[in-house]
């Protein structure tokens, strides 16, 4: 089988046999693939003539002038695809290809000479054939995916992974190599290549996603011309995930890439970057699988606010829009992120959202789920939050104290009751007169509410008595509850 592989590589012609003294190692000259046959490309073809030599030779066995030709030959050898679902087939051929991939990986890792354009083309062709054509994302997703919302089970890796990992490692080393000129390589790392790389992030193999993360990050850093397109592609992935499928396994890795990208944004932030925050990142709080990528998402959001504090009020408004009502796990995550935002928010932005914000916190403080209530009450242990409340206490105290009084009167959990008393004491020390006034107002409101309830009860009793005195008509029955 490996002989058949070698036959697919262009061999030397009879004329080239006669010129073998000028082409060492029995090589043959072939034009670079991808060039047209028009006369306009004649000069370019002549400038990109390469030498194909025996791919089984080791790099150490050829002079430096021939190493790039050997590099291209070995890449051509690795373009042959095997079926790894049957481990009993093509064993020797698979081992030959694996050994060749290891040689290529060592070559690009050892500071090789500057890569020629045919070498760059051959490299990306080999990677594309192995990564995009042999095992498309649909194959890998169906054979290696987790169960829905099940991140604790051990993932099942597909049998081709040891082979694919070498291709990924080669691509990463190739992109990171100082011998690769970005001006030449950007012709082959095009929008199609990048979009296919991003599609592969839906793989169920976490090791594959880690490799893809490093590769996409390297592409983003090295090829500035493609940065807007990468951001657009990732935004589209998030849009489909949030508003259509809620199924994608690579959201955490994509967010991790953007966490470092956001730190490099120049100030003031471009409108495009703000739109990405408000339309892509904030809606990511909506899906049920938030816990899988929450840490990476929260980091990105905080980075935005640290870059431009004026975005804090918009972020909090977005959180309130997607605030979970019945999912207590998500509610606790929201409270944790909210605390981080309040630690970096400035006073003008805080004042824009403080009323709806503390109305939501009040509901959390009265939650029957004791962990949610505790998490909301622990906000008052933060000095920065207390510093925000103090100058705005005339607005915030009337919102908070009804919840504190209600907890002290009726909450079932003793620890929540103790924490409530501590928070109440802290706020009373801040302004005892205002706190007493809020408590008095709450008691008066409760008294009025009780009077309304009693009045309504008496009204219904009167109606029932009047109904009892009325005669029942011949064919009509009156039911009074």
Automatic annotation (TrEMBL):
Biased composition (Basic residues): 1-13
GO BP: signal transduction
Signal peptide: none
Database matches in Gene3D superfamilies: Leucine-rich Repeat Variant
Molecular-function annotations in GO: protein phosphatase regulator activity
Sequence segments annotated as region (Disordered): 1-39
GO CC aspect terms: protein phosphatase type 2A complex
Highest taxon above the source species: Eukaryota
A Pfam family that the UniProt record links to this protein: B56
Protein's UniProt name: Serine/threonine protein phosphatase 2A regulatory subunit
The organism of origin for this protein: Dorcoceras hygrometricum
């Amino acid at each position: 089988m490996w002989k058949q592989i070698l036959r697919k590589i262009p061999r030397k012609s009879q004329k080239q046999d006669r010129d073998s003294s000028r082409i060492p190692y029995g090589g043959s000259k072939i034009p670079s693939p991808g060039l047209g046959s028009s006369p306009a490309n004649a000069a370019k073809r002549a400038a990109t003539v390469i030498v194909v030599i025996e791919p089984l030779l080791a790099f150490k066995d050829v002079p430096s002038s021939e190493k790039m030709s050997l590099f291209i030959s070995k890449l051509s050898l690795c373009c042959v695809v095997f079926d790894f679902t049957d481990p009993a087939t093509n064993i020797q051929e698979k081992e030959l290809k694996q050994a060749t991939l290891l040689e290529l990986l060592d070559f690009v890792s050892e500071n090789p000479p500057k890569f020629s354009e045919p070498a760059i083309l051959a490299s990306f062709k080999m990677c594309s054939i192995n990564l995009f054509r042999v095992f498309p994302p649909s194959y890998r997703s169906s054979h290696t995916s987790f169960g829905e919302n099940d991140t604790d089970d051990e993932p099942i890796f597909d049998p081709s992974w040891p082979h694919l990992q070498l291709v990924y490692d080669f691509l990463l080393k190739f992109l990171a190599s100082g011998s690769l000129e970005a001006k030449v390589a950007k012709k082959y790392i095009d929008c199609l290549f990048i979009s296919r790389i991003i599609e592969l992030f839906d793989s169920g193999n976490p090791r594959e996603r880690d490799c893809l993360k490093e590769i996409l990050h390297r592409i983003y850093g090295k090829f500035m011309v493609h940065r807007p397109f990468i951001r657009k592609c990732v935004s589209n992935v998030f849009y489909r995930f949030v508003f259509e499928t809620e199924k994608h396994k690579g959201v955490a890795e994509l967010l991790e890439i953007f966490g470092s990208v956001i730190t490099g944004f120049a100030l003031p932030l471009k409108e495009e970057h703000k739109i990405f925050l408000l339309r892509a990142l904030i809606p990511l709080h909506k899906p049920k699988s938030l816990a899988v990528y929450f840490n990476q998402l929260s980091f990105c959001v905080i980075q935005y606010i640290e870059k431009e504090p004026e975005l804090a009020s918009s972020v909090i408004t977005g959180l309130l829009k997607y605030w979970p009502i019945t999912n207590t796990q998500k509610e606790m995550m929201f409270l944790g992120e909210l605390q981080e935002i309040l630690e970096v928010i400035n006073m003008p932005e805080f004042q824009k959202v403080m009323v709806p914000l503390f109305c939501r916190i009040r509901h959390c403080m009265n939650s029957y789920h004791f962990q949610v209530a505790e998490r909301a009450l622990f906000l008052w242990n933060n000095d920065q939050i207390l510093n925000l409340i103090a100058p705005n206490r005339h607005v915030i105290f009337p919102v908070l104290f009804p919840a504190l009084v209600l907890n002290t009167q009726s909450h079932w959990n003793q620890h929540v009751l103790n924490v409530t008393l501590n928070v109440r004491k802290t706020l009373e020390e801040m302004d005892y007169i205002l706190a007493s006034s809020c408590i008095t107002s709450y008691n008066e409101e409760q008294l009025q509410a009780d009077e309304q309830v009693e009045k309504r009860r008496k009204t219904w009793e009167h109606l029932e008595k009047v109904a009892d005195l009325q005669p029942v008509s011949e064919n009509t029955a009156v039911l009074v509850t």
